[in-house]
Amino acid sequence: MSEKELGKKLDRCLADSAVKLGAGLGLGIVFSVVFFKRHTWPVAFGLGMGLGMAYTNCQNDLRAPYLIQRNIKMAS
Amino acid sequence: MLRVCLKGANSAARKCLCGNGVPLHPLQQCRSYTSGGSGSSAGKIVAASVLTMGGGVGGTILYANWDPKFRANVEKSIPYSDQVFGLALGPAAPPPVINKPRKVEPVQISSMSEVWKDSKQPKAKEVQRKAEQPDAEGPPAPAPQETLEEASAQVAQILSAIGEVPSVPAPGTHEAEAVPPPAALKGVPAAAAKCTECEHEPAVKERPEGEVAARLAEQDKAEQDLLTSLSSNLEDALGSTAKVTLQAIGAQEAALQAIAQHTRQLREAMEAEAPPDKKSTQWRVLEDALSERSRSVDEAGAAVLKAKAELDKLRGVIDGAKHLKIAAARPSILAAEENLHSMVVDLDSVVTRVQTAQSEAKIVSQYSELVNEAKAQFQKELNSITPEIQANWKGLTGKLTQDDLNSLIAHAHRRIDQLNRELAEQRVREQIHIDSALEQQKLEDKKALEVAISTALEHNREQMRLEQEKKVEETREVMEAEMRTQLRRQAAAHTDHLRDVLKVQEQELRSEAEEILNSSLMEKETEYRRLTQDQLDSFTLDMNAAYARLKGMEEAIDSHVIAEEEARKAHQLWLSVEALNYTLKTAALNDPTEPLEGAVQAIKESCAEDEFAQALATALPSESLSRGVYSEASLRARFYTIRQLARRVALIDETRNSLYQYFLSYLQAMLLFEKAQEAPPAKLSAEDLDTFKLLSYAAYSLEHGDLELAAKLVNQLKGESRRVAQDWLKEARLTLETKQVVSLLSAYANAVGLGTTMAP
To answer: Which sequence ranges are marked TM in the entry (chain A) (predicted)?
Structure first.
């Protein structure tokens, strides 16, 4: 069901973003706690990195069909 | 064609006149003018054709008058022309009759050709008469007969000349034999030469030859009789003459003997000094001898006369035989003549001998007479002197006295003187006598010489004539023999040629007969074969007809069976298709149908030999078989979600596919409103290819049950919308395919069923 794919992708996106955000947050917190003396900027940084990663992942995931790969046929 | 021309001319004239607006009356004039004008040319044409026809007919008649063959040809080819010719020229002259029998055969032996021509010409004339004109020609009939006889006589002569010489009767048979074979030979080459030309010829020719041969045989026989009579005559004459001549010669010899004996005895009597008794016996014997001699001489003379008469008779007979001119008798004539001649010669010689003997005897007798006279005289003288002493005084020596002796001696002396005187006288006269005697003798010698010469000449002449005749006869015989050999050779050559010709003919005839036999055999065989073949054919035909009918019946039954089978199959197909249809209907909402595989398998089984159905059955997409298809309703339901989604990702395509674009497209979808359903136009323009419009078109067509159009429209989506609708599209395609195939199958099943039910 190709119409469900988008939903799936979006789900994955959300999940991934959540994960990434969480991970970013976590790492930010960790880093901020550990390395950067509880500054918030590593958290923000981590969150931002997490968000950015999630955004990029989501975008890549959504773009994936349109990427021309070398040995793979066009995604149907 | 003339009428057409006339009409054309009329119409043209009328048109031009009508065009000018002239009233009817001039039109009539014009018409007559035009008809006249064309009439004059027509008249010219008619006249020319009549002239040509007349010229042709006249020329034909003239030429037929000149050449009868042409006339015959024309009469044959053109019916009733013979009547025309009869009217014009008179009846045709009958064709000239070719006289084939007039020809004489070319194959003839040269030496016999004239003879045979002579003998055949009358026959040929007779044949001509028989063949050509049955009207009687009496006068020529005897003439040919006479000529025939003459000719046959000549033929017989020639043939007899060819025939054997010694035995006279034999030539008759030999000729009779020789004549039919040449006749037969003549007949055969005549037949062989002529049979190709006219078949009745051989039969006609052989008859005359046979008749001629018969006649010749008759004549030969007559001649033979004549000849035999002649020869018998000759022989008789010869025999009698010979006998008589022999008798004469014998008589002459006897006379000769008698004369010789008489003379001898006379001489003996004169010379011998025998005692008187012996002397008397001697004289008696002498007288007997003399009488004998005279008798025999007379006898001889008579015999000679008789012989001479006989010889004359023989000569007469020979001359008569010679006059008859029969060649066969010639040698016998010659022999007779020779005999005659020899007899004459013998007779003459004997006569001359007898004459010489007689002259001798005369001399001797004269001498004896003289001696007797002298003796008588002496005796007389002696008697006058010595009358005592008798005749025989030889033995008187003892009885005589001296006186007697002296007187005797004186007498003897006187006698001697007398004798001497007489001797002297005689000597004197002797000469004269001798002269006269010589003269006489000369005359007589001359006469005798002449006679002898004449007789010798006659004899020589006769001899020479005989020799000449003999030589002639010999040469003739030689020639005859040569001719016979030549004839024989020619006959041999002729027989050889005949044999060859016969052989060739035999071969030809045999080959012909064989050919005819073979051809008739083959004909009969072919006939037989044809008949058998006809029988076979008719039988085969019947059999084939029966078989065909059987076959027809079987086929009808089979076709019925087949038709029923077909019907059953169609029914089955239809049932299976119905089953397929039914399976298609089992689609629940959002669930595909049952897999169509079973039904399709059933279809495939039901129509195992139907290619169309098989093709259709295999044309079903495999997914429909394995998984089943979605119903239209489910697809329709699904479409709305697709639509929502497609609306949302309408902006996303290959170029724009970032997340921001996603947001934007979402925003667009929220803000853009289109008609829920819009009727799609017949043709899509460029602006109709907008996602939203397409979706609304598709919704409309879906709502109106046109899945196909909806699928087509959905197919026009681009980008992410397309990707989103991809599955739906696939499903729609599947469904559409399946539906199409199934509808085809059902249509086909219906058609087949319809067809089978319609079939008789």
So the answer is: 18-36
> What are all long-range contacts of B79-85, with beta carbons under 8 Å and residues at least 24 apart?
B85/B61
Write the DSSP symbol of residue A65: G
Query: Which pLDDT does position B8 carry in this prediction?
Result: 58
Phi and psi for B590 in degrees, rounded to 5?
A: 65, 5
Chain A residues with beta carbon closer than 8 angstroms to that of B665: none
Q: Which residues contact B330 (CB under 8 A, 6 or more apart)?
A: B469, B473
DSSP result, A13-62: HHHHHHHHHHHHHHHHHHIIIIISTT-SHHHHHHHHHHHHHHHHHHHHHH
The per-residue pLDDT for range B287-324, each reduced to its tens digit, is 787 788 788 878 878 887 887 888 788 788 778 877 77
Q: CB-side exposure of B500: number of CA atoms within 13 Å?
A: 5
Q: How far is CA B546 from the centre of its chain?
A: 58
Residues constituting chain A: 76
To which residue do tokens 């005819």 refer?
B516
Q: Say yes or no for a CB contact (<8 Å) between A2 and B723.
A: yes
CB environment B687-726: b (16+ within 10 A), e (fewer): eeebbbbbbbbbbbbbeeebbebbbbbbebbebbbbbbbb
How many Å apart are CA B379 and CA B371, to the nearest integer?
Answer: 11
Say if B728 is an interface residue toward chain A (CB within 8 Å): yes
Whether the CB of A66 is below 8 Å from some CB of chain B: the reply is yes
**Given its phi and psi angles, is residue A67 left (phi above 0), alpha (psi -120 to 50 degrees) or beta?**
beta
Cβ neighbours of residue B261 closer than 8 Å, sequence gap 6 or more: B289, B292, B293
Residues B10, B31: contact at Cβ < 8 Å?
Answer: yes
Q: Provide CB contacts within 8 A for B92, sequence distance 6+.
A: B68, B71, B72, B75, B85
Chain B residue numbers with beta carbons less than 8 Å from the beta carbon of A51 are none
State the first-to-last Cα distance of chain B, in angstroms, to the nearest integer: 63
CB of A11 within 8 Å of any CB in chain B? no
Q: What is the DSSP letter of A64?
A: G
Q: How far apart are the CA of B723 and the nearest CA of chain A, in angstroms?
A: 7
Establish whether this prediction's ipTM goes over 0.90: no
How close is the nearest chain B Cα to the Cα of A37, in Å? 35
The number of residues in chain B equals: 760
CB atoms within 10 A of CB B291: 12
Taking the CA of residue B664 and the nearest CA in chain A, the distance in Å comes to 14
Judged by CB atoms closer than 8 Å, whether chains meet at B727 and A2 is answered as: yes
Shortest CA distance from A8: residue in chain B: B724
Chain A residue closest to B645 (CA)? A3
Minimal Cα distance from A65: which residue of B? B654
**Is A1 at the interface with chain B, CB within 8 A?**
yes
First vs last Cα of chain A: how many Å apart?
11
Q: How far apart are CA B145 and CA B142, in angstroms?
A: 5
Angle between helix B402-585 and helix B329-385 axes, rounded to 10 deg: 170
Using the 8-state DSSP alphabet, how is residue B400 labeled? Answer: -
Q: Which residues of chain B have pLDDT under 50?
A: 19, 21-23, 26-27, 30, 101-146, 155, 159, 161-204, 391
- Find the CB nearest A62 among B653, B662, B727: B662
